[in-house]
Amino acid sequence: MAARGVVGIFFLSAVPLVCLELRRGIPDIGIKDFLLLCGRSFLLLALLTLIISVTTSWLNSFKSSQVYLKEEEEKNEKRQKLVRKKQQEAQGEKASRYIENVLKPHREMKLRKLEERFYQMTGEAWKLSSGHKLGGDEGTSQTSFETSNREAAKSQNLPKPLTEYPSPAVQPTCKEIPDLPEEPSQTAAEVVTVALRCPSGNVLRRRFLKSCSSQVLLDWMMRIGYHTSLYSLSTSFPRRPLAVEGGQSLEDVGITVDTVLILEEKEQTN
Question: How many Å apart are CA 205 and CA 186, to the nearest integer?
């Protein structure tokens, strides 16, 4: 359509030129010259029409190629988004399977080991057994209970339990952990604060009178779950074991000011 318009414009602009030439050369022009002039004009118009047509088709093809490239880019972008989405979903499924099949069992096993170690240190290894039904075989229950206790004592290098029990008349009762003395106030005289640094990293603090027996430190250890056969006390600076005896007071063992004591596990000997 644009080519036709351009051809028409060139044709209309050529008509005045032809008329001008005819007017100038009317006395001398003949039919042959007139035909030759018209042929040249038409040849010029054809050449211009060809040039305009080729140029227009080239421009249209260039525009169509740009549109095609743009459409291809949009398709590629959509395809890439879809591929990335599928990859993210696949990675999410792998992560969930890894958590469910690897991390979760590992955490459960670690918690189970910590629980077993805690019960073995506190002497409550019977909690690790599956138990027995009421009304079952009492001899079998007693045997399995003794076996579990022996295994726990062997793993912690505890003294072997007695295989022979005294008669019921002279059988000793279970020794309970004595109660700690009442904690004095901060304004009371002759009061020291003892900070106990546990193996777990926690620091516990409590006030005692200097006149209290040093045995209260061991009772305090038992109260918070650290058996005296597995753990010992030592001073922080200088680092040395704290000699605790029932007949000595806190002041006698060197605790005259606020002190930090370290609770550490004893070295196990085979």
Answer: 12
